[in-house]
Automatic annotation (TrEMBL):
Molecular function GO labels: hydrolase activity
Lineage of producing organism: Eukaryota, Metazoa, Chordata, Craniata, Vertebrata
Family label: Belongs to the DDAH family.
Source species: Homo sapiens
Keywords associated with the record: Hydrolase
Family annotation (InterPro entries): DDAH-like
The keyword Nucleotide-binding appears for this protein: no
Entry protein name: DDAH family member 2, ADMA-independent
Amino acid sequence: MGTPGEGLGRCSHALIRGVPESLASGEGAGAGLPALDLAKAQREHGVLGGKLRQRLGLQLLELPPEESLPLGPLLGDTAVIQGDTALITRPWSPARRPEVDGVRKALQDLGLRIVEIGDENATLDGTDVLFTGREFFVGLSKWTNHRGAEIVADTFRDFAVSTVPVSGPSHLRGLCGMGGPRTVVAGSSDAAQKAVRAMAVLTDHPYASLTLPDDAAADCLFLRP
């Protein structure tokens, strides 16, 4: 899988959702997103789909935009995928929880094994989960709690799962990502560097690190089609 999911395995499909017009009116402000230039966002969305299909050779599955779900294009929050298993998340914001319905159906159609979160005390945003190809790190943030991290560990028992405190308003993958099979890319902010140091203490695997000036630039996904 390409999006949402974890990018260290072999990928054959990418899942994206169209940009709703409601984002142009600033309805994403509750998540800290400004009102978008809709035409520009739709052009960029088309470029993304083209690169996934043409440059990476992925089969592109596109969900239609839903005006009632202005943050619906942020599919990375809705599922954690490794191998043939997809863990459907339970976003921290109740307003975002309907986003998982279309994603669940699409992943079921692909034949993935679907795991649901039944614990109402758990919160889990997929962009708090970083898979390195060897292990999982789960950010404990405003968006994801300990119970959510425990469910990741219960779902993917073949891998070590460690929790990383995340300070500030970001998700873990808003601070760092995988730039290669053994390279962690991180922003230069205090929050990003603290997260990387915590990961280094928790892991038994050697990773190279690359620091970028901008945290947002570290939010990347390494794919091997």
